[in-house]
Amino acid sequence: MATRKQTLHDAGVALEPDQQKVKPPPLYKVLLLNDDYTPMDFVIVVLEKFFRMRREQATVVMLKVHRDGRGVCGVFPRDLAVTKVEQVNEFAKRHQHPLACVMEEN
Question: Do the beta carbons of residue 65 and residue 33 sit within 8 Å?
Fold first, then answer.
């Protein structure tokens, strides 16, 4: 009995890669919320320190927070957004300011 080595092609198996699409991870907006006690200069420092904004951009975001009650600091993957929120809230607490930082799905 002669045996022949059967190839995948002979067996009718396609060798094309699966075309599965991987969805990108959801992104989250990190926001600062306005309050009546945190100084505007402190908000600018937070935006410069934790979100690497230049003073001009930080001032624009700070004024948006002041006028609209909230402002977007950035959009990040979930883990990074959680870290930013925790860092900002801890920094504000350490400096005895009630500034609140939150995140929401984009």
Answer: yes
Residues 6+ apart with CB under 8 A from 79: none
Both tokens of 101, joined, read 């930082």
> Over the chain, what is the mean pLDDT?
90
How big is the CA angle at 79 (ends 39 and 58), to the nearest 5 degrees?
A: 30
Q: How far is CA 93 from the centre of its chain?
A: 22
As to burial, measured by CB atoms within 10 angstroms (0-12 exposed, 13-18 middle, 19+ buried), residue 68 is exposed
Determine the Cα–Cα distance for residues 40 and 63; give it in Å rounded to an integer.
8
Global model pTM greater than 0.85: no
